[in-house]
UniProtKB/TrEMBL annotation, chain A:
The keyword DNA damage does not apply. SMART domains: WD40. PP2A consists of a common heterodimeric core enzyme, composed of a 36 kDa catalytic subunit (subunit C) and a 65 kDa constant regulatory subunit (PR65 or subunit A), that associates with a variety of regulatory subunits. One of its GO terms (molecular function) is protein phosphatase regulator activity. GO terms for cellular component: protein phosphatase type 2A complex. This is Serine/threonine-protein phosphatase 2A 55 kDa regulatory subunit B.
TrEMBL record, chain B:
It comes from the Eukaryota. Pfam families: SERTA. This is SERTA domain-containing protein 3-like isoform X2. GO terms for cellular component: nucleus. Residues 62-109 form the SERTA domain. InterPro entries: E2F-SERTA_domain_protein (IPR052262), SERTA_dom (IPR009263). It comes from Parambassis ranga. Residues 28-57, 145-177 are annotated as: Disordered. The gene is LOC114427003.
Length: 452, 269
């Protein structure tokens, strides 16, 4: 798939208020999550200001071949508002941590969005017809004078401009003491789970006043706390299996059939530490920031600070494949610890056929690894290099002092404030969505639209 | 979004200084090298090694890095006190790093810090984790009382450290800042539980130790490995000093136990 990637969308910066390249943006515009729906027709983004923006793909048309497949804004709404916890004197951020779509079952679309504490189910529906011809009201809605009504008519539905309505259908609140980091919809389409630092809860989509606690790693004495949950996901096909990752770099596969409280894992995936590589930062860089099942359900993809790993569910002792995302940072860990970058949480993604994995890095770079050919590419998501229809040029980072080719970037010149933490891959096609701070980039592989 | 200097230390196309660790390694500044030589040789003296040889360069860098990481760790944990919220994940990772450094320092065999009381008191993690994310069923306790069983002296001790004038007279400013930073962090952890309670707590502590010359003896280096390595001269001087003040130490220990007892009563009421 790693053939040239083309810039798909023209209107790529929909969240910033000013189109100039170097205009400042507010912190609320920073995109905090990106997610395609199950068909790839819709793409949702959440930001730090609690807003959700949904993009819809324009249907391909024969008449205008070059405008086909572009994503345009479909709907924007305020999902979460900032709250204040009076008991603890803490502000609850409205930042959207995760969005997950429900599989579509009727004309409307449903998605779950969550901030640190509250999960909400939103219904997104279209209205393109409206009733006309009321007997008691006129077209502007004013009550008619009854004496002027001489005959009865049946109101008919007439087409109108498309209107997208978004309404909150459920609010799942007050179930998390700690910050929610993940939500995952179960393959049974009836339940979903929400995970915070120490606990995972199982919800029924229709029931908001109750949830089941299925994982609890809070120690009796908080002084003994050494590990937190960093991400969790349901198996794509087996509704009884789910996985959660920890800050110590372990993955635990749990089976809900075994016990009500899944504190005891069915499988523990952990790579033994290399004693020669031990440093003060070993634990921090081993913390798993994201975990994703492959579409097949056979593999797990995890991301820690420097690598992305593919695990086989049948092999717990070590990962199947390890990909170095930006190993040139290994000698810079102390500085990255100093400026807090070492705590950044990068996400990762599979392509639809599970043959390519993708993850973000610094300097607005993102990386893709082909699992079959073992080739990889580094690309940049920036305005300068992303004119519409332009082909992205592969980038290279050379180690300080190493041989430097033209256009290479030296490690010391990397901009660590430009981090690509959130990426998403279309479920069927080679279309990717990259969130770079406040900008959303959508790229497509024009040559090979189909997945292989 | 404005970014502070701290976060954007590496700008685009601009060569910035990396951490002082790399700087010093690369350039081998004479001052730093000298300081580390002193600390290294003192450490070996402390552990009873009579060779007095300079440790190999990698060890010096390791010590230096450890010191740097330690300082940063404390600074980050302390930032929490300034009102900046720290995620639980980050707190846990920082505290684990702190523990790792502590373990390493203890196992390095730094001699004078053998007192269980002293090392036991250094439990920043307990305060931070327990008190901060207080739940419905968690009793509000002050750090001292909660650790009453372990005879912790940390909370009563720590307030005296923020008086750098007492400690600073005999120490070089940077080391004093490090120790006081750590103690501040330890002390500040207590704030997480209940501000009102800790205000009372603070008052009692300060009044107890204002006039005592304990601060100088404690901060001289017998409390923690950090000070031993950083104040080689003072440590040589102070070791006899701390022995001779054992008597006053003893009375202070008694006082501190009484204080713990008083605090327990206050909290339970």
């Amino acid at each position: 798939m790693l053939s040239p990637i083309q810039v798909l969308c023209s209107d790529i910066t929909t969240l910033s208020l000013e189109p100039e390249p170097f205009a400042s943006y507010t912190e609320a515009d920073i995109i905090s999550t990106v997610e395609f729906n199950h068909t790839g027709e819709l793409l949702a983004t959440g930001d730090k200001g609690g807003r959700v923006v949904i993009f819809q793909r324009e249907p391909e048309s024969k008449t205008e071949p070059f405008s086909q497949g572009e994503y345009n804004v479909y709907s924007t709404f305020q999902s979460h508002e900032p709250e204040f916890d009076y008991l603890k004197s803490l502000e609850i951020e409205e930042k959207i941590n995760k969005i997950r779509w429900l599989p579509q079952q009727n004309a409307a679309h449903f998605l779950l969005s969550t901030n640190d504490k509250t999960i909400k189910l939103w219904k997104v529906s279209e209205r393109d017809k409206r009733p006309e011809g009321y007997n008691l009201k006129d077209e502007e809605g004013r009550i008619k004078d009854i004496s002027t009504v001489t005959s009865l008519q049946v109101p008919v539905l007439k087409p109108m401009d498309l209107m997208v309505e978004v309404s909150p259908r459920r609010v799942f609140a007050n179930a998390h003491t700690y910050h929610v980091n993940s939500i995952s919809v179960n393959s049974d389409y009836e339940t979903y789970m929400s995970a915070d630092d120490l606990r995972i809860n199982l919800w029924h989509l229709d029931i908001t006043d109750r949830s089941f606690n299925i994982v609890d790693i809070k120690p009796a004495n908080m002084e003994d706390l050494t590990e937190v949950i960093t991400a969790a996901e349901f198996h794509p096909h087996h509704c009884n299996l789910f996985v959660y990752s920890s800050s110590k770099g372990t993955l635990r596969l749990c089976d809900m059939r075994e016990a009500a409280l899944c504190d005891k894992h069915s499988k523990l995936f952990e790579e033994p530490e290399d004693p020669s590589a031990r440093s003060f930062f070993s634990e921090i860089i081993s913390s798993v920031s994201d975990v994703k099942f492959s579409h097949s359900g056979r593999y797990l993809l995890t991301r820690d600070y420097l690598t992305a790993k593919v695990w086989d569910l049948n092999m717990e002792s070590k990962p199947l494949e390890t990909y170095q995302v930006h190993d040139y940072l290994r000698s810079k860990l102390c500085s990255l610890y100093e400026n807090d970058c070492i705590f950044d949480k990068f996400e990762c993604a599979w392509n639809g056929s599970d043959s390519v994995i993708m993850t973000g890095a610094y300097n607005n770079f993102f990386r893709m690894f082909d699992r079959n050919t073992k080739r990889d590419v580094t690309l940049e998501a920036s305005r300068e290099s992303s004119k519409p229809r332009a082909v992205l040029k592969p980038r290279r980072v050379c180690a300080a002092g190493g041989k430097r080719r033209k256009d290479d970037i030296s490690v010391d010149s990397l901009d660590f404030t430009k981090k690509i933490l959130h990426t998403a891959w279309h479920p069927n096609e080679n279309i990717i969505a990259i969130a770079a701070t406040n900008n959303l980039y959508i790229f497509q592989d024009k040559l090979n639209s189909e997945m292989h | 979004m404005t970014l502070s200097k701290d976060t954007s230390m590496l700008g685009r196309g601009v060569k910035r200084k990396w951490s002082c660790l790399e700087e010093l390694e690369a350039e081998g500044l004479p001052d730093a090298a000298e300081e580390k030589q002193q600390s290294a040789s003192d450490e070996s003296a402390e552990s009873g090694d009579e060779a007095g040889l300079l440790p190999p360069r990698s060890d010096m860098s390791h010590l230096q890095q450890r010191q740097l990481v330690l300082g940063l760790c404390l600074e980050k944990l302390q930032r929490y006190q300034a009102g900046m919220e720290l995620s639980l994940r980050r707190s846990v990772l920082l505290i684990n790093t702190l523990r790792q450094i502590q373990e390493e320092m203890r196992s390095d065999g730094v001699g004078t810090c053998t007192s269980d009381v002293l090392l036991n008191g250094v439990h920043p993690d307990s305060c931070l984790l327990r008190d901060d994310f207080r739940e419905e069923d968690m009793p509000v306790t002050c750090p001292g009382c909660a650790e009453g069983d372990a005879e912790s002296l940390s909370p009563p001790l720590s307030p005296e450290f923020p008086s750098p004038e007492a400690a600073g007279d005999q120490q070089k400013p940077p080391p004093a800042a490090t120790v006081s930073t750590f103690s501040d962090a330890v002390n500040a952890m207590g704030y997480l539980s209940d501000l009102a309670l800790d205000d009372i707590f603070e008052d009692i502590d300060t009044s107890m130790y204002e006039t005592s010359d304990l601060p100088s003896a404690w901060s001289a280096g017998s409390l923690w490995p950090v000070s031993v390595s950083l104040w080689p001269d003072e440590d040589v001087k102070m070791r006899p000093g701390s022995h001779s003040s054992a008597g006053s130490l003893q009375s202070c220990l008694t006082d501190l136990n009484e204080l713990d007892h008083i605090m327990e009563i206050l909290v339970k009421s």
